[in-house]
Each structure stands twice: as structure tokens, then as C-alpha cells.
Amino acid sequence: MKDISKPSLKNLSNLRRKAISLSQAGAIAIDNLLPNRPLPLLIQPTNERLDLCAWAKHNREAIATHLLKHGGILFRNFQLNGVTDFEQFIQVTSGELLPYTYRSTPRSHVSGNIYTSTEYPASQSIPLHNEMSYSRHWCMKIYFYCFENAQQGGETPIADSRRVLDRIDSKIREKFQQKQVMYVRNYRKEFDLSWENVFQTTNKSEVENYCRNAGIEIEWLDKDRLKTKQICQAIATHPKTGETVWFNQAHLFHVSNLNPSVRVGLLAGFKEEELPRNAYYGDGSPIEDSVLEEIRGIYQQEAIIFPWQTGDVLLLDNMLSCHGRMPFVGSRKVLVGMSEPFSSSI
């Protein structure tokens, strides 16, 4: 587990001074993107030829401090010349990029550890969620690069995970805090993702070793099928700020998240325990549909939606902020990179 120390009081107290001095230098302007909404913070250059990587190299500490305060930063109108520069920006601000392992959605590899964002059909939306929160291992930072904006729609909504937690009924929070969340997955090539895709290997021993180290229970079934179970956090504590956040994907994995006709079709062909994916309370008891609908409603109410501009880079603290995707028309290409691994022991 990566050792992430808490920021010093000096760093936090200097936040306003640093922001002002950067602006006074004439290089950038800092403001909220939306009125009265601290998320995301907007940073853009006053000189349109300002190179993002070069600027970030000298302002890494200020970027990190802003991120802890706001939860997300939108870098707009900087010079960023394609995938190589995007990868370099991540390295400059966060260090080594992480591979996308123990996958839950289809993506394509672009370069190094840069991937396309989730490749669901354009007509579908992706609910707000924190990356890899269905696992005990996740990235602390996630970056999005708008390489090509959609003709219409395709926004990446975001929300403050602290506000989401605060709005959930205390009885629901307490029950999840006590029981946690169990994720059950059945891997079939014809439904959802195959285990070879999820674990990025065709070697069963490598899968078994990964699952053993990650605390995932596995069972090999007939016809080379795999079933996994894992109990993970429902609420997590940020290692730097000490704040608690709603941090799970029960609302995404649960069968109630499926289109009603798809749900009926799957349940006609499979027993509930055989579904490609589902979520339960950590003791194996069912999560009530009404509870998850309430949580989904809170996510929707907290969603912050803004149009992409080609060349935008959005940096999120993956625990403080969640993200999703709106349906779109036309070609859309948003790239993703992750950094700073963190592990939780529940």
C-alpha cells in the first residue's frame, strides 16, 4: 500500500496565497467553472500558447493542494499535443501511471497505460461512480482528456462524494457501514466481460494468485467459467483529508441497475446467483431495490454537468469526486489515465 502522508497545515494555509501569486504572475486564471460550485475548479492560461506540462512541472504542489480542497480541476485552453503530452502531464503531476486491472467495463488500450473511457453504446448513460470502488485497491487520481468532443452530449458528469454521503439517510448509511458490500461476478464470454478480459491473462494460475492477494474468493465452474465474490467497503476515509465518502458501486453492480427488459431476460435464463454481476450486503443478504433507487436519486441530484471542449483535461481526486457519462451523438473520444495506487483493509 502506498504511504500517503497528510498535508501540512502550512501547505493548506498557503493555498490562497499560492493561487493569488500564480494568477498575479499573469500565466493563468483560476476560478470556479460554475457559479457557487467549488467543483470543478477551472484553471486556464492567459496566454493561449502556455504548455500544460511545462507549467505543471513548476506548480505540482499547488495543483495537489487545490485538488484536495475542490476534489477536481478542469484544465482548459492549455497547449496539449495529443496522447503523449497527456501521459506526460500525468507523470509530471502524479508519477507512474497504473494499468487497468480487475476490469469491470470494456476499454481499449491507447498507449502505455492510457485507455479509452468505457466503451458502452452511445445511447447509454453511465451512472456516477468512483473508479474501482468495487475493489479494495483503487487509484487516488483519475485523469480524463477530451481528445474529440461529441457532436452532441457526451458530457462527463461529476459529483462530490462527501455530499453524496451526507445526503444518504443515516439508517441506510449505518447498515452499509456495518455490513459492507459483496460483489458477485460470473464470467461468461457471451455475457458481460470474460475472465480473460477482466484479469488480462489466459493463465488460470495468474488469476488465482491475483485473487488470493486481493481477498477475492474464486470458484472455477464447468466449461471454463469463473465465479468470484469479494466483500469491500461501502464508506471509505480519505487518507489525506480524513473525510468520509460514499465509496462503492452497489448501485451499478446490482441487478436493479439493468434495463427492465434486460433484467427480465437474464432472470429467465439464469438463477440470481448465476447473473453476470450483482451486489449484496456483505453478509450475503439482498440489498433492497428501494434503497438503491434512493441512492441513485441522490447521485442524479448532485450531478454537475458541463460540456467538454476538445483539449480539456479533467483531474479528479477519485475518492472525493465521482464521475459518469451522458449519452451522445457523433464521434467521441475521451481518454483516461490513472495514478497513485491505494489499498484498503476492511
TrEMBL record:
InterPro entries in the record, alphabetically?
AlphaKG_dependent_hydroxylases, TauD-like_sf, TauD/TfdA-like
| Boundaries of every TauD/TfdA-like domain copy | 38-337
This protein's cofactor list reads: Fe(2+)
Q: Which residues form the signal peptide?
A: none
Q: Which GO terms describe its molecular function?
A: dioxygenase activity
Q: Which domain of life is it from?
A: Bacteria
Return the Pfam families for the record.
Answer: TauD (PF02668)
**This protein's UniProt keywords:** Antibiotic biosynthesis, Dioxygenase, Oxidoreductase
Q: Name one GO biological process term.
A: antibiotic biosynthetic process
Is the keyword Oxidoreductase in the record?
yes
Q: Keyword Nucleotide-binding on this protein?
A: no
What protein does this entry describe? Answer: TauD/TfdA family dioxygenase
High-level lineage: Bacteria, Bacillati, Cyanobacteriota, Cyanophyceae, Nostocales
